[in-house]
From TrEMBL:
Lineage: Bacteria, Bacillati, Bacillota, Bacilli, Bacillales
Gene: hemG
Organism: Paenibacillus rigui
GO CC list: cytoplasm
Matching Pfam families: Amino_oxidase
EC number(s) recorded for this UniProt protein: 1.3.3.15
Catalytic activity: coproporphyrinogen III + 3 O2 = coproporphyrin III + 3 H2O2
Name of the protein: Coproporphyrinogen III oxidase
Function, as annotated: Involved in coproporphyrin-dependent heme b biosynthesis. Catalyzes the oxidation of coproporphyrinogen III to coproporphyrin III.
One GO MF term attached to the UniProt entry: oxygen-dependent protoporphyrinogen oxidase activity
Pathway(s) per entry: Porphyrin-containing compound metabolism; protoheme biosynthesis
Enzyme superclass (EC): oxidoreductase
């Protein structure tokens, strides 16, 4: 019997995890297989890129992962990375919203922008009195009668009013999707909100109930292995940055003999009598099975000649481009110490940046003693032009906004700019049905080809890791 060949396309965290899971499985059962990982760029990791400079740990893409979802912790345990984990600094528990020319503390008890504690919500200046009264109507309004998906914007406005949508929920969620609240699907992004309306009628009461009576959690062995001081941290990362995970995965794959091909953009896939042909610019590779761990735009381009219906559905999962501007400073440049993790800015404020993380306050390992690291975010669904500005223009505009917001004029020691072209996947209304149609099409026409990654079932790193693992399991559970 000839050795089977599996191709994984895309060397981001999804493709890396999928490849690792495949390699581990076949080693465990003692079946020889050939696995080839094809990555378009010159580096592995996709959006995850860590840079070390002058004692700073700089994340050019994501900076941490949600600790509550177990996939990354399980993988960290597997890769012997538990000792590398670090949690958020307790000094960063506060965060702010910039509104009407000043920073307002985020009221205590907000969950995804929805109030769960009355006193801080009544006391906040982020909403007007009519805005708060409108939010309180959520407690008495009847629930939606028609079932089905709706946009997050529509749900929040319908229940809590436009001020909560524009000033709280919108800016908080902008960091995850950089998307249009009025087009993002509730069913695909936060299905728990739909369930809350269904069961509790009110989102406020639903959130309060969820906080008071969290679902009984499954015992989570990886989480229980965390040192106690990390168990309370909502987000985690590694002391050497998220790149640590990418490096460790790449090392494990190389040691196991996986063929990793960088600078290998896949142009097309075609079905063969048995298996598939993967077409690159200078060669064609024959494989038996494929994991397509590239975003939907690239999957669409790769599959466009193979299936028109599939390609047109993939086209309906767009992505938005963003940039982030990391700046290092001497702490002495700030007369007033920064306190908290940073701030978000509602779009209506008309500023250039959408948010700023006080990175070194949030993650103490990211800057040497006496230095400060800030990260400003640029670009969202309605602003795709500013991302294309030159480095000088970006630096100038970011500094202008920071001076205005912080009331301090500081000169950075250095600036690192990262542009992420079409990097934030948008789950638009109808995403869940669209995904089902894609799965049906694949199941019918493309046996043993699985798609996974940020365009499909979650954009966060834990979701991508979980998807990579699930994709590998789907492939190896049907006998090779
Ligand atoms: C700026 C930014 C900040 C973020 N912050 C966070 C955060 O703090 N926490 C969090 O959990 N998530 C965060 N995310 C989201 C998360 O990082 C990503 O959704 C996740 O890393 C995506 O992984 P992926 O492997 O699915 O896709 P990608 O990382 O996009 O990887 C896809 C890979 O496929 C390759 N590829 C594409 N086309 C081809 C082709 N034709 N042939 C071969 N290879 C190809 C690409 O080069 C790329 O390496 C952030 C994302 C961005 C952009």
């Amino acid at each position: 019997m000839s050795v089977k060949h599996i191709g994984v396309i895309g060397g981001g965290i999804t493709g890396l995890t999928a490849t690792y899971e495949l390699q581990k499985h076949f080693a465990r059962i003692g079946q020889p297989v050939r696995i080839t990982l094809l990555e378009k760029g010159g580096k592995l990791g996709g959006a995850i890129q860590t840079l070390k400079r002058d004692g700073f740990v700089i994340e050019k893409g994501p900076d941490s992962f949600l600790a509550r979802k177990p996939a990354v912790l399980d993988l960290s345990k597997d890769l012997d990375l538990m000792d590398h984990l670090v949690g958020m600094s307790p000094a960063a528990s506060k965060s702010y919203i910039y509104l009407n020319g000043r920073l307002h503390p985020m009221p205590a008890g907000l969950a995804m922008g929805i109030p769960t504690q009355m006193k801080p919500f009544i006391g906040t200046r982020l909403l007007s009195i009519p805005g708060k009264a409108r939010a309180a109507l959520d407690l008495v309004l009847p629930k939606k009668k028609t079932p089905g998906d709706e946009s997050l914007g529509s749900l929040i406005e319908r229940r809590l009013g436009s001020q909560v949508a524009d000033r709280l929920v919108g800016p908080i969620l902008a960091g995850i999707y950089a998307g249009d609240l009025h087009r993002l699907s509730t069913a695909a992004t936060f299905p728990q909100l739909q369930a809350m309306e269904e069961h509790n009628r009110s989102l406020i009461l639903g959130m309060v109930a969820a906080r008071n009576h969290p679902l009984p959690a499954m015992p989570d062995p990886a989480r229980m292995q965390l040192p106690p001081h990390l168990r309370g941290s909502m987000f985690l990362t590694y002391k050497g940055g998220l790149g640590t995970l990418v490096e460790r995965l790449a090392d494990a794959l190389q040691q196991a003999g996986t063929q990793i091909c960088l600078n290998s953009p896949v142009r097309q896939l075609s079905r063969q009598q048995e298996g598939y042909a993967i077409h690159l610019s200078d060669q064609t590779i024959q494989v038996d099975r494929i994991i397509l761990a590239v975003p939907a735009e690239q999957a669409q381009s790769i599959l466009q000649h193979a299936s028109t219906p599939l390609s047109s559905r993939l086209e309906q999962i767009p992505s938005v481009s963003v940039a982030n501007v990391v700046m290092a400073f001497d702490q002495a440049q700030f007369k007033r110490p920064l306190q908290g993790s940073g701030f978000v800015i509602p779009r209506q404020e008309g500023l250039f940046i959408t948010a700023c993380t006080w990175t070194s306050m949030k993650w103490s390992h990211t800057a040497p003693e006496g230095k400060v690291l800030l990260r400003a975010y640029v670009g969202h669904w309605a602003d795709q032009t500013h991302v294309q500005l030159t480095d000088q223009e970006l630096t100038h505009l970011v500094l202008k906004d920071l001076t205005r917001i912080l009331g301090e004029q500081a000169t950075p020691l250095f600036t690192e700019i990262s542009r992420h072209s079409e990097a934030m996947s948008q789950y638009l209304v109808g995403h869940v049905e669209r995904l089902q149609a894609i799965e049906d099409e694949l199941g019918g026409q493309f046996p043993n080809l699985v798609v996974a990654g940020r365009s499909y079932r979650g954009v966060g790193i834990p979701d991508c890791v979980a998807q990579g693992k699930a994709a590998a399991q789907r492939l190896y559970r049907t006998n090779l």
